[in-house]
Amino acid sequence: MTTHPDLAEALDPAVATDPLGDADLLYGEVEEDLRATVRDLLRDRLDPAAQVRALDSDAPHDRTLWQALAADVGLAGLLVPEERGGAGASAREAAVVLEELGRAVAAVPFLTSAVVATTALLAVPRAARVDDALARLAAGGTAAALALPLSTPPDAGWPSAVTFDGGVLRGTVTSVADGELAELLLVPAVRDEVPVLVLAEGVPARPRPSLDQTRRLSDLSFDGADATVVAEGEAATAAVRSALLTGAGLLASEQLGVAGWCLEETVAYLKVRTQFGRPVGSFQALKHRLADVWLEVTSLRAAARYAADRLSRSPATDPETELAVAVAQAYGSGVAVRAAEEALQLHGGIGMTWEHPVHLRLKRAKADQLAFGTSGRHRARIAALADLPPA
Questions:
Q1: Does residue 184 contact residue 335 with C-beta atoms inside 8 Å?
Q2: Which domains does the chain carry?
Q3: How much is the pLDDT for 120?
Q4: What is the pLDDT of residues 341-352, one digit of tens each?
């Protein structure tokens, strides 16, 4: 049999290369310590029954919990460099936090404020106004948001819904995640047909019906709001793209947390739920279903960890980083939904009730399917990056 030259080279240990390069997908000691801290705090402060009851209120966000996480633990400034008032951590540590917040579906703006908005601020040219905003965010007393619909993918074109003229903003942005919590807004706008990224405060937010009530969406109306330009032209587009790419890549870690909780809770429940005098978890058909979920969750962990590792070491303009993020999102959204659906079904009647917290995970998983672009959009991006012909 004749072996193709390219295949022979790939199989030759002397010339084969590691496709992951020097990536480290394992959790380090600092990351595990951070995980333990966040998980313990969530266990102590977040009551599942109270969390479900809060969904019927006008304020499902847990501001007290966010204050503890943001200020007491220091998560609000996790990605901010130490010389600018933060912890100086990387995307790897932020990914671990998002895993735990995903497990608990905590109604806090870590992803939108401490990750996406903060990344955008770190990517713009340094100025006193930017440093002041970062210091306020790092202190934990202020939240921020990037004024774009949550569904905006990293490769989207520059939006034209908001204009900036004469120092004021005009226009409306819909479906902004955690918009009602944000005191600071980073707004992509257009001035004389040139992209500008501006910083605004005091903009009213109007909540809109959201499937995932633990991450509510809002419409923002800029009716003559005062604002300050922090970047324009290519600097503005690069900052927004970096923020969206980081958000998409680390969202996979949140999806991993959701899926992991669903798998663990379902396995634990099936061990104690009995039928015909034996635990239902001993039935072969259910074992097979859980094995499939375990395999997908394990694969998602590898994809999410690689995306976080690439984001911690490479700029957003690196095609390999963009590819890692696209792969994580193309795969992760489906895994989280399947794990949540299996958890709800295998919990039986109790899983269908409003009181059981499994529906929170299903809603978060379904909402995350649209966040930062659909899986189909990311698959198309993978094809473009890998130079694959369209189907």
A1: no
A2: 29-142 (1.10.540.10), 146-234 (2.40.110.10), 237-385 (1.20.140.10)
A3: 98
A4: 999 999 998 999
